[in-house]
Amino acid sequence: MVDGVVGTGTGGEPESSDSLRTFGAVVQGLREHAGLSREEFGELVRFSKHTVASVELGRRMPDAEFVQRAEEVFGRTGALRRAAGCLERQPGLAAWFRRWAALEQAAITLYTYECRMIPGLLQTEAYARALFANQLPPLDDGQIEERWAARAERQKLLKGRPNTAFSFILEEHLFLRCLGGGGVTRELVDHLQEIAELRNVAVQIMPVAQGAHAGLAGPMQLLETPDNRWLAYNEGQRGGQFISDPKEISVLHRRYARMRSQALSLEDSSSLLQRMRGNL
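Structure tokens predicted for Scr1 family TA system antitoxin-like transcriptional regulator (280 residues):
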């Protein structure tokens, strides 16, 4: 962490499960009992000492090859193989996103600006599946089902927390792309119009005619906790950045406030969505 900014990539997990930490502690105990350093053990299992450390600290789900080779190093007792079968991670959510998803459950305010795709909280099943179908590396059917189930569960927040204020600013071009085809986009617009009728949800469109605006640096999410502390989360191609530094939060707050004034009003946003739907 540097100045309250935590960056995590594909190998990092801000919060691991109890089973991952327990498995890691067992690996560490067996390694130390064998008198091996992390580097020495890593050479034997053909993984880097950094990977060994991530597994031992419960930050990484061990690969099948890691478990098999560790078994050979520790005498093929079968203990690690059986323990690996009990490992749990929250399914359907990217490792770097789990900490933020947990905070969402209790948030009293949630602001989201998105310029890449419709945010997960607002996606229809057809839109989400179109995203999953185009993901690289490709997902198998089981992974797609798992991810949609996790996304659908998250979406219950919108109606399940009527005292939480949700604000979304979405770029107009997200709809013009017509991901999944015209039918998927029409259904998406209808869904958004329905969600926008909730008293605790505000949906604004940033029109392409606006040109430059305060959010050109990329997507962002801001969240207020029950004790009135603000946190932020920015996501990139292969990882996310969790931000708690008040100075950084202040910058993002000012940008989001400016964007709300630059985006269309709630009424004009609804009208634009209806016009785009009619053109599909």
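Strands lie at 5-8, 109-114, 165-171, 201-206, 220-224, 230-235, 240-243.
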